């Protein structure tokens, strides 16, 4: 029996894209080879035919469509997956009709890529793909009990190994910077600096100097030279938050810096080499901004080699109470419990401001709470109004939220009812009454 892993040939003219795809398919359990052009792909094919080809459409010289035609002359059945920018979708669809097995649009969705490879070659049970266990060494402030957040963290771990630019998407307050810091921590650049800047918070007149630096005397007030954020992050990672707010006149300069690995300080004609990985974040729809002419299309595709979405808190119900308890301990300086009514109110709230709103609500509660238990009256009024009124143990029906809270706490406490009752802020007897009520009350 041949245990040699199946080999995937990755054809793309951009080294960061090849590395990212290579590391991902390796995590899925496949071997891979790289080719920077159609010509190199055909030469690699001649040396040893691969089991599958991931083929970029837009390349200098022989493009992906031409390369596909040559591959089909050599093998009619070899799986070929095209990777295409949105502008080339029509051409890619035509290529599927003439020989490609399928296509993926950039930015590549890793779930879709894994599914497409699995469909073509069959899954590799290595336990290291996107559905594997969480990476070791996660920071304690990163709560990821929910499936949605666990997926985001696993994807971040895969992406971290590459130097490819990453675009982190998510609503305001979801924790995009936490994920960016995780990408840096899990990357080979972890020993280097992580420099963060908010493009929307920098004065437009100074943002070029902030990013690329300036020489002494470059403009009025420039009494000393400044190295800029790109150079400050040399050997590490530069996080540009709210990248969608970058002024249009600076977008070509950012694109040039990413592509060339060089920055030119304001007031200088001499470019300076930098070794900086870019991680960008935004809560805007950049594809829509491109369509409206507010964001350069070439820059969008350059920073969006891989897209990493951070889910909103309303899609992470399993994370809400653990986050609330974590914030309570942070602000109270000691473990603080949530009463069942407070927990009910917290779970019932949709959290439009996401993790930031939850953190502020718990900070307020800790300031008002004089004991060890956070009650509904300590929460913001709009949350407190959703809290259930007290009832005698065993009376009334348990809400779906209260049921979910009890089950989640029991799981955290490994079904130790004494510990669970303490965590819930009720007596052990009251918890037993509630469990009996749950047994007699079918879940809807």
Describe this structure in words.
This protein has 444 residues and is α/β, with parallel strands linked by helices. It folds into three domains: 7-121, Rossmann fold (3-Layer(aba) Sandwich); 147-311, Rossmann fold; 314-440, Helicase, Ruva Protein, domain 3, CATH 1.10.8. Helix content is 43%, strand content 13%. The protein contains 19 helices and 14 strands. It has helices at 15-27, 38-47, 64-74, 89-97, 110-121, 147-160, 176-185, 207-212, 228-232, 251-260, 286-291, 297-303, 317-332, 340-348, 354-368, 381-384, 400-412, 417-424, 428-440; strands at residues 7-11, 31-35, 52-56, 80-84, 102-105, 166-169, 194-198, 237-241, 262-263, 272-273, 277-282, 306-309, 337-338, 373-374. Helix 17 (400-412) crosses helix 18. The model is unreliable at 125-131 and 390-395 (pLDDT under 50).
List the helices and strands and how they pair.
Layout: E1 7-11, H1 15-27, E2 31-35, H2 38-47, E3 52-56, H3 64-74, E4 80-84, H4 89-97, E5 102-105, H5 110-121, H6 147-160, E6 166-169, H7 176-185, E7 194-198, H8 207-212, H9 228-232, E8 237-241, H10 251-260, E9 262-263, E10 272-273, E11 277-282, H11 286-291, H12 297-303, E12 306-309, H13 317-332, E13 337-338, H14 340-348, H15 354-368, E14 373-374, H16 381-384, H17 400-412, H18 417-424, H19 428-440
Parallel strand pairs: 1-2, 1-3, 3-4, 4-5, 6-11, 6-12, 7-8, 8-11, 13-14
Antiparallel strand pairs: 9-10
